[in-house]
Amino acid sequence: MPIEKRRLHIQELIQRCIRCYACRNVCPLCYCPTCFVDERIPWLGKSIDPTDTLTFHILRAFHCAGRCTDCGACERVCPMAIPVRIFTKKLNKEAFDIFSWEAGLSLDQKPLLTAYKKDDYDDFL
Amino acid sequence: MYYKIFDKEDWINGLHKIEGYKVFVPVKENYYHIFLPIDKDITPDFSFHNTKLSPKSIIYPQSERMFEFVVDPEQPDAYVLKEVPKEFPSQAVVGIRPCDAHAFQIVKVNFDNPEYKDPWWTKRYEATTFIGLGCNRPRSTCFCSKVGGGPFNEKGLDAIMYDLGDRFLIKVITDKGGDFIGGIKGGKDPQDRDIKEAESIKEEAEKEINSNININMNLQELAEKPILAVFDAPIWDKVSFPCINCGICTYLCPTCWCFDIQDEVYKKNGDRIRNWDSCMFPIFTLHGSGHNPRAEKFRRVRQRFMHKLKYYVEKYGDGVQCSGCGRCVRYCPTNMDIREICNIMAK
In A, which residues are within 8 Å of B60 by CB distance? Predict the structure, then answer.
């Protein structure tokens, strides 16, 4: 999808989000003692402002990057039938394309974002 | 009190054309129905059990800008809270189920009482006409008749629609209802057999809901049990175990009313906003000091059911803070059931 159309498409997908946080609470990897949405530094507002809702979904997906195993609980639990996995799968795809990484396949591998290898992709530097 | 009967097509055309009201109708979106303002592109769909979200947000929006202020010390009105000017145009909710209409009456004691009148809730409620749609086929999760309601109960309604298949028989209950119905063309006087058909549909629905064994809630026993006996009962660890502390039950519930007030400031301008909040969220009771009296999950879950089934009953003496819509039962991701928990509390 062309970049200009993506934001509008995503805003439509999350239009019905009621910020119940069921997706976050049911996620096996959302174990932060204090979630970023509850921190005193306001990363995002608590209203259903569309930009704040977008921030929640995108930031949560990024926090799960490299750790999400696509269990699908987030999408299954959403009362508003939002395709939550659209965000997490995108990050999973990036992890695979850039670092050949699939989370959860081996207990011995160090998590993607905690380990650095000399030949890691670094064209963005 | 009188009746009018409409062909369904005339009724729906009338909803599009009626003047002087912002009309909310049930609309199919994704896999569910929700109430949306009618528009030329919006088709009402009255063949639904109930909307996913209750119509609570039509009177009590999820986010409401209450006040605005400037934070520029140079300005003479710096830091002064000013009420945001608002309009409360006439609106109508058509197709609201009796449980959801009853719920507004349950909630009214909180927002409209001798000690306090919430300016936004009361004005919006007064500006709204409720045209209900009786339930021909209650669902397995419905228990309105157990908590003071019923599939064709008229509490909180200005008129009620009976779905007769190809026509709607409307019973006008209040003057407000009459004004709205009068604005829709095509209404005829019904024949006796139409009214009899409606009555028998109502009886069938009431029989169906009352024959559902899942709704045998021991409300009388719970009402007689002392508050502290229920509060201190060793049931809460087991009852609260499945809860994942999301806000699905709270936000879908037509009788939940808790909120959080937040100030949001951008550069020199700020807003004081009221947002829905849920007592299930871990930081709902977090104090400024850092203390959290409901840090443990069992305390929060206990709070929800004590509030719904005990505190509200004892404070207002008019039944539980629940209208039996069943959304929490249906959509809780871990299958917690208020009807079951009520009976555990009542033992």
Answer: none
